Structure prediction request, 80 residues.
Amino acid sequence: MPYIEEKDREELEPAIRAILAMLKSRKPRAVAGMLNYVISKIVWSMWTHDKCYDTGNTLIGALECAKTECTTQAGPVRRR
Prediction:
């Protein structure tokens, strides 16, 4: 997992738990769209808050790192 201060993790956890509870109650196909919406909404809100190349570059870089982290954590995935 990415490194952030423990106090920052604690502050984020309630919101993450609330979103996860909603997503886990839905069918897998619906979850993909909802997850995309949540991520897009957060990124776009941050980008429009400070609309410059550096902010966009930083946010896209964070998304790429999150993607890499997820694929690393998942390990080999088998096809159905």
User: Anything to note?
Assistant: The chain is about 80% helix and 0% strand. Residues 39 and 63 are 9 Å apart (CA to CA). Residues 28-49 form the longest helix (22 residues). The chain has one domain: 6-70.
